[in-house]
Amino acid sequence: MQMAVAGHFYVRGREWKIHVVPEHRVQVSASRFPDVCVVSRDREVEQILTRPPLICIEVLSNDDTLRSMQDRVDDDVAFGVPNIWVLNPVKRRAHVCSFRDFREPENGILEVANSPIGISLADLFADLD
Q1: pLDDT of residue 23
Q2: CA dist 86 to 35, 41, 75, 93, Å?
């Protein structure tokens, strides 16, 4: 799942003016690193990101709990990440997250407001077949 989502961003990197950085060190927490981050091409990809990326994406694994996922989202929110997505490859669902809630995208597309960035969940999960 991680490779599928990173691949979607990678092939559209120039068009969307972004860099995709899987498992990159982000100074959101001393011990946690998001599965995939997306940063604007307007900024340098630092060895350790010290400013919030445009998107942080977490991919659920079998041993993740709601509490651990909420802790990750809370870290991202506190760091100032504007777009936080959680992907569940087993159930083929995704959530857009904030401090207040986890909600599924109504139109089946994960989007970034005021940008061309949008990923169809049907297309994304089809990569797993």
Answers
A1: 67
A2: 10, 23, 14, 9
CATH of 2-126, one of 3.10.580.10, 3.90.1570.10, 3.40.930.10, 2.60.40.10: 3.90.1570.10
Apex CA 36: angle with CA 85 and CA 32, to 5°? 90
How far is it, in rounded angstroms, from Cα 82 to Cα 84? 7
Q: What is the mean pLDDT of each run of 10 residues along the chain (129 residues)?
A: 89 93 64 82 79 92 87 90 94 91 93 94 89
Which pair of structure tokens corresponds to residue 92? 């083929």
Burial degree of 31 (CB within 10 A; 0-12, 13-18, 19+): exposed
How far apart are alpha carbons 108 and 121 in whole angstroms?
6
The answer to pTM > 0.85 is: yes
CA distance 85 to 83: 7
